[in-house]
Amino acid sequence: MRLEWQIGFWIGALLLLILLLWLFSGVLLPFAAAMALSYLLNPVVDRLERLGLNRLGAVLLILAGFAVLLGLIMVLILPVFSRQLASFLESLPSYVVKIEDLGVRLANDHGASLLEKLGFGKAASADLRNSTSELVNQAAQWGGSFFKSIWSSGAALIGVVSLLVLTPVVTFYMLLDWEKMVATVDSLVPLRHRQTVRGLARQIDAAMAGFLRGQSLVCLFLGVWYGVGLSLIGLNFGLLIGISAGFLSFIPYVGSLTALILSAIVAIVQGWPEWRLLAMALGVVLAGQFLEGNVLSPKLVGGSVGLHPVWLIFALLAFGSLFGFTGLIVAVPLAAAVGVILRFAVGRYRESKLYTEIDAPGSTILIESSAVGAKERG
């Protein structure tokens, strides 16, 4: 098959996959979550099999432990998280007003002369302050009502119920038949391309395993570190900020910025005019970032994942906007696969005649004669 036909085939396959995801995005969430869990837990099942358990017993043991962990989270953490979330949404407008008043007070005390030098008189600064206050308050109220409507809507409730009920069942069957599914897919690959496809599959698996499994452990650690640390120093909504930042740490830099901004705002409002609470909150966040950047990510994720942060952020935003939460789950695997395939395609292109062959037989002589003439003129 010619290179052009191969490129067209794989582009068509990718477009078909995106179309299927878009058509069935409303029912794919439990299956996508089950696929992600199966991929994460399959190495544990393989290790238990090597220790002497059969496949069924290993899967049942893993799912039982996962169910116990999920039950503990729902009993111990979820009620506190829900209360803090409701309280945070109710307190958000007042927090915004306090931050605005503090900024105005600091501007009047220290920045009035600077504003006048820049051409902003008292009337202009007052109008700007009033318009900013109205805009921020409206945005805060809109954000609070938006999140409340998401949690109270019937579609979200059905999605959560289906996720909690169907995901364990689908995960059980996928883990039980994981090796058979992989063998079936491998048997469908044409014999002359089997070694190439297996090599690509190993590279994709290395990229996905390095990021998904490693980054999941990093997110878990950061969520516990932020949540426990901010709660111990007495910061309001510490558990909410910590769990949210840990979850968002899956996206590069987003989790750390979330923890830093939210903890700083809450600490300033809660501890004003003292700065002790702000210093302790920043210490917790910066210590977590130091551990992530220098200890956790190098050891758990590694530097050979092959997923550039910009490419990963684009994939998460693009698939999230197209397919919702299902898109966020499948974004990283597809980004890893596309990245490996593109690197392979670029390598094959550089080896092909399309890149190495010179069309005109005399073009080399023409180039060399031009170079000689340039040297003589120089």
Protein described:
The protein has 378 residues and is mostly helical. It has 2 domains: 24-185, no CATH class; 189-353. 86% of the residues lie in helices and 0% in strands. α2 (29-50) crosses α13 (325-351) and α12 (309-323) packs across α13 (325-351). The longest helix has 56 residues, at 55-110.
How would the blueprint of this fold be written?
Elements: H1 3-23, H2 29-50, H3 55-110, H4 112-117, H5 122-152, H6 154-176, H7 178-187, H8 194-232, H9 238-248, H10 254-271, H11 276-301, H12 309-323, H13 325-351, H14 353-356, H15 363-377
Helix pairs in contact: 2-3, 2-6, 2-13, 3-5, 3-6, 8-9, 8-11, 8-13, 9-10, 10-11, 12-13
Element pattern in H and E? HHHHHHHHHHHHHHH
Report Rg. 27 Å
What is the total tally of β strands? 0
* Overall domain count: 2
End-to-end separation: 49 Å
Low-confidence stretches: 149-157, 362-372
β content, as a range? Answer: under 5%
Structural class: mainly alpha
Largest β-sheet summary: none
Task: Look at the structure and give the mean pLDDT.
Answer: 75
Tell me, what's the shape?
Answer: globular
